[in-house]
Amino acid sequence: MDPADALALLMSPAGRVDPYPTYERLRAHGPVVQAGPVFYVVTGYAEADAILRDARFGVMDDALRDQFMPGWRESPAVLSISRSMLRTNPPDHSRMRRLAAGAFTPRRIAAMRGVVEAQADALIDAMLAAGRGGAPVDFMAAFAYPLPVGVICALLGVPAADRPLFRRWATDLTGVLEPEITPDELAVADRGAAELRAYFSELVAARRRVPADDLTTALVQAHDADGERLSGDELLANLIVLLVAGFETTTNLLGNGLVALLGHPAAAAALREHPELAPGHVDELLRYDSPVQLTSRMSTAPSRHGGVDLPPESWIIVMLGAANRDPARFPEPARFDPWRPQVHPLSFGAGPHYCLGAALARLEAQVAFPLLLRRLPELALAGRPERRVRLTLRGFATLPVAPGREAAPVTVAGPPPGAAGPTP
User: Fold this and answer.
1) Rg (alpha carbons) of the chain, rounded to whole number
2) Of 93, 67, 26, 74, which Cα lies nearest the Cα of 318?
3) Which ranges of 317-399 does DSSP label H, i.e. alpha helix?
4) How many other C-beta atoms are found inside a 10 Å radius of the C-beta of residue 222?
């Protein structure tokens, strides 16, 4: 299968639901392959990492959007994404990122552990109540969505009563992140963006009237003090992206990760008994089934990667999910092995656009999985999970589980199994 045909398969509904076989078809042509006149696909880990860190590559700017997407300024979805730090290059990207970075320092993230633990415990209590008598519970709706949305909304200062609104709006908006989108899908994305812009316009006005100790107030005050630091469009766009990125990736990590752990009972048992193993397990879950499968870059100068010359104004699709399964970097990449040394998955990107909330997402997963497995030792699938037909943001629409009975409190001592090597 030539690269263009493999890419077409990847964009199909079946290819999006299970992209991994198609990644290997692309990889057979090399770590960097040309799929069109100025269109390239990257599947190699080393090449993906290098391109994401290379200053000669940036995200699509306004001039290129004018070329590839005439009329994009009339789309609330494209406008919302394009005015955020997600889709801007330095120096604008650096300026906006600095304004939000104070909420994501290592000290602040570490201080949130207790909040995450309390929220996760409360959600497990609710799962137990909903699953009493053997009734199935949708893990995505009951845990994977409300945990991260509660955390990011607390940072932004969004009232708890409003949090259920965001799942549909965000699902609609994030369609615009797909590498291909139909006019109907764009209309749905625009609807979600319009709802989010209206919501945050009201929240901004409320914070101007009554400031609070939250990230929204900090960004509003930065805008009001100096519009050169943050314009009005940038203020709304970054609030939307901080909210959506703050839970979409983690929601998918929790769903994908739970399915992987339930399918690998030895790894799940080790994590249940030794929660200190969580960092390694979570990094392997990120590698094994990445919640973000791709990102894109445009080249601004000639370069050579993976033995391929990349001319200026080339469009590069960096397949993060494929890079995370590159056999040149990870032996037996299709095998889930939380004892792999130095995993360093590319799921959160690399370089200047490395995910601002990566440490927070890791913390939430490192707290959630051991707690779920310890409190719910009988947790099991209770039906066929339904994948979202998305490629960029890979996750489940529904994930039915049976919580089972809650475990009695126990104390486990001793060294974690497998500390000296991989799983048996």
Assistant:
1) 21
2) 26
3) 320-323, 358-375
4) 18
Tell me if residue 327 falls in helix, strand or coil: coil
Q: Which residue's structure tokens are 């615009």? A: 176
Residues 23-402, CATH architecture: Orthogonal Bundle (1.10)
Pairing of strands 380-381, 400-402: antiparallel
Beta bridge partners of 137: 401
DSSP designation for 90 = T
Question: Per-residue pLDDT for the chain (424 aa), expressed as one digit of tens each?
Answer: 899 999 999 999 999 999 999 999 999 999 999 998 889 999 999 999 999 999 999 998 887 788 877 888 899 999 999 999 999 999 999 999 999 998 899 999 999 999 999 999 999 999 999 999 889 999 999 999 999 999 999 999 999 999 988 999 999 999 999 988 889 999 999 999 999 999 999 999 999 999 999 999 999 999 998 877 899 999 999 999 999 988 999 999 999 999 999 999 999 999 999 999 999 999 999 999 999 999 999 999 999 999 999 999 899 999 999 999 999 999 999 999 999 998 999 999 999 999 999 999 999 999 999 999 999 999 999 999 999 999 999 999 999 999 999 987 655 445 554 544 433 2
If you count them, how many residues does the chain have? 424
Amino acid at 419: A
Residue type, 293: Q
DSSP symbol at 104:
G
Q: The pTM is what?
A: 0.93
Could you tell me which of 328, 331, 356 has the C-alpha nearest to residue 97?
356
